[in-house]
Amino acid sequence: MCIRHIAYKETLDRGYASEWNDDHTLDYSNCIVHQGLFIGPALGAEWDFTETAGGSNPTWTLVGAAGSGHAYVVLNTGGVTGQTSVMKQELQGAASNITSIADYPMWTMTVQIAAVHTAGLVAEFGFFDNGVNIFTGNQDGAYFRVLANVLYAVTGTGAAETTTNLGAFSEYEVYKIRMTSVGAVNTVYFYVDDMQSPVATHTTNLPDSNLTVKVGVQSQNNVDSTLRVDSYGLMRLRKSS
Number of H helices and number of E strands within the chain? Predict the structure, then answer.
């Protein structure tokens, strides 16, 4: 665990909510935590846009009325079929893989799928091999996919993939992907809104390369696709115990 207790209590001793902050500390010997609300450094300082093709580069935008808007990173494709808007996590100022299934990484992101066509492949977001463009079949990764108005959980080796149909999706959701191990079996868990109960559990066709985080949207049938993100977090364990 990343958060450790400072104080130790005897069995049946009472603990209080007011003690929480003083009693807990981040333990960086066990994990690395990175998070962002997209209201600090310029977006291009941490994210790479080189996979964007035809669409607009993602931009930080205040969406809504002045004084009551919501800060998002907005990805917009434009209205030509096949155009994309993509961002992927950088390492030291360059697009690069930043983790692997061996790190037991956990990624969480709030995503608003604001406008997409009801046909075709329109969005993918999660863990991907940096070396393969998003929206390419059988990618090495663990991610969510929006295809023909249905949400899928996907794991792939680069040669084959496992998918779980999650049904219809809501416009605004919190998504989480957690890679871990149960005994000798690697497992990928997918969560949507409920962070306790996975909506899908995959043990086959798991990614076998290093990975980065990507978010992408693609236009279909000459209709704009728009996806918005307002926060994200990535935790990587430094050891398995």
Answer: 1, 18
